[in-house]
TrEMBL record:
Boundaries of every Fe/B12 periplasmic-binding domain copy: 52-306
Keyword line: Cell membrane, Heme, Iron, Lipoprotein, Membrane, Metal-binding, Palmitate, Signal, Transport
Family: Belongs to the bacterial solute-binding protein 8 family.
Pfam families in alphabetical order: Peripla_BP_2 (PF01497)
Name of the protein in its database record: High-affinity heme uptake system protein IsdE
Cofactor(s) for this UniProt protein: heme b
Residue ranges crossing the lipid bilayer per the database entry: none
Organism listed in the record: Peptococcus simiae
Length: 306
């Protein structure tokens, strides 16, 4: 029950998050107000590599590995594997609730976290008087902008540029295959046991659908998730319905299956009548952008262009 409560709290937090735009990575120091990376941030100017970096999410850990950076603190994860490079590194606990005593004891130069948890983590970091930054992992483009920003901050411009170039090449090839998009309207449901919300283009899964050429029936430019009733969803008449999980994917998918079988409102959806409701792989369609987005786009390609 406690685990479900923690995930429910996280989903509420995500519904309230402010999506970063112009300054994708926002850097904060003990004595300076928030600034967009690339401007002066106290002693950390990007000319030297900080020796003590803590990351609090697995997606952030993967970025640090790609940038060839060592870290002194990593998160616990029951879903994603820790990079071999960081095995044996001190654990700082759950991404949403890092251990404050461990964080303080590590005396990090920087703590890097996903922007989706800024509401939960910023008060903790300020309480501990830490220098910290939040990166935008809500979308694939946001992740790569954040990679560029981190490259400047941590003196890894060359590594960052190579990663961005790989992304640009992949997307150029993908768009060449599907220049006009699919033209299919998509409803995306993000769930946890007992509840679900609608994912917009500002969520990671919504970002993937948009990149793949699908049309989200709830694009919304202001927030990643919306609370919407089934009657309103029906009016959107989606061609496809995608279901994915914030956490506990087995329980969430079982919940979705029961929902579609027992809630009579769903039988009126054309997508349901035509059997176009699809479960998305939680590891590829989670909450944060990761480097397995090509596999995710390949999955969507099969649905959108079939």
């Amino acid at each position: 029950m406690r685990q479900k409560t923690v995930w429910a709290k996280a989903l509420v937090s995500l519904l309230m998050v402010v999506v970063m735009t112009a300054g994708v990575f926002c850097a904060y120091s003990r004595s300076h107000p928030p600034v967009a990376l690339g401007q002066e941030t106290g002693s950390a100017t990007g000319k030297e590599t900080p020796e003590r970096i803590v990351v609090t999410s697995m997606a952030t850990a993967y970025i640090m590995e790609k940038l060839d950076l060592q870290v002194v603190g990593v998160p616990d994860s029951q879903v994603d594997p820790l990079p071999d490079r960081y095995r044996g590194v001190t654990s700082v606990g759950a991404p949403m609730q890092p251990d404050q005593e461990v964080l303080s004891a590590l005396q990090p130069d920087w703590v890097i976290s996903p922007a989706s948890l800024i509401g939960d983590l910023k008060p903790i970091y300020e309480k501990l008087n830490l220098t910290y930054g939040f990166i935008n992992l809500n979308t694939v483009p946001g992740m790569y902008q954040s990679i560029s920003d981190l490259g400047r901050l941590f003196n890894r411009q060359q590594e960052a540029a190579a990663l961005v170039a790989d992304y640009d090449r992949f997307m150029a090839d993908y768009r060449q295959r599907h220049p006009a998009g699919s033209g299919k309207k998509v409803l995306i449901l993000m769930g946890l046991p007992g509840s679900y919300v609608v994912a917009t283009d500002q969520s990671y899964v919504g970002s993937l659908v948009k990149l793949a050429g699908g049309e989200n029936v709830y694009p919304d430019a202001s927030q990643p998730f919306l609370n919407v009733n089934v009657e309103d969803m029906l009016k959107k008449d989606p061609d496809l319905i995608f279901c994915t999980a914030h956490a506990l994917p087995d329980e969430v998918m079982a919940m979705f299956h029961e929902e579609f079988q027992t809630n009579p409102n769903w039988k009126h959806f054309r997508a349901v009548k035509e059997g176009r409701v699809y479960d998305l792989n939680h590891n590829r369609f989670g909450m944060s952008a990761k480097f397995n987005y090509p596999e995710a786009l390949s999955d969507l390609e099969g649905y959108l262009y079939a």
